[in-house]
Amino acid sequence: MTEVAEAGPRQRPRVEGGREDEILDATVELVAELGYDRLTMDAVATAAKASKATLYRRWTSKAELVVDAISRAKGCPIPEEVDTGSLRGDLIALSCNEGGFTDEMPMSVMAGLLTALHRDDDLQLAFKERFLKPRLGLTARVYSRAVERGEIAADVDVELLSQTLPAVIIHHAFVLGVEPTEDLILRVIDHVILPAARGSQAR
After folding, report:
1. Which of 83, 81, 91, 77 lies closest to 184, judged by CA?
2. Crossing angle (nearest 10°) for helices 62-72 and 19-34
3. In which residue ranges does the UniProt entry place its DNA-binding region annotation (predicted)?
4. Which of 147, 152, 186, 141 is nearest to 168 (CA)?
5. SS (HEC) of 37-86
6. Which of 48, 99, 103, 129 could, after both became Cys, cross-link 23 (CB 3.0–4.6 A)?
7. pLDDT in tens, 143-188
């Protein structure tokens, strides 16, 4: 009897050298410029000076390429782990540095993806798993440390509180058309997040 080794999912070949990073960076720039719906594999191939065959050997679809790009490319970095010693300091560090709300590229990419995320289930699933999940994990750790330091009252819904800053900023940016400046972020932190963190103690 011939034994057949049990094989896992086939790994698609990576693009050699620095070409993969160049393709990912070109994809991020095109999402920001054109939006997801207007972006094509042809446009990425042209911008990255690569063949479509190269793209399809590595990525099976536009959704797979885009999510890989926004998750790994230099234009949309995951903010570094922060622990400034206070909730206010941590939120400022996360929001106002590279990869935060004041960083033009991630916000432009978000604008390019918003409409498609409501219609494309594959894109939405991959976006949540690969782009949002690590960022939400980082935010959860910031609020968990704030709870341990006693900065957040016991009667506060910490999960809901942690969603408030991005919700307000994204509403301003994409509904009201207000640029997410550092001043706006500080206003939300100082007048909404920190008072809410005190819970019933503030009333």
Report:
1. 91
2. 100
3. 40-59
4. 186
5. CCCCHHHHHHHHCCCHHHHHHHCCCHHHHHHHHHHHCCCCCCCCCCCCCC
6. 48
7. 999 999 999 999 999 999 999 999 999 999 999 999 999 999 999 9
Quick: pLDDT tens for 11-65. Answer: 565 666 578 989 999 999 999 999 999 999 999 999 999 999 999 999 988 998 9
- The tokens for 105 are 């590229």
Distance separating alpha carbons of residues 86 and 161, to the nearest angstrom = 16
For residues 91 and 189, the answer to whether their CB atoms sit within 8 Å is yes
User: Which CATH number is 19-72's, of 1.10.287.70, 3.40.50.1460, 2.160.20.80, 1.10.10.60?
Assistant: 1.10.10.60
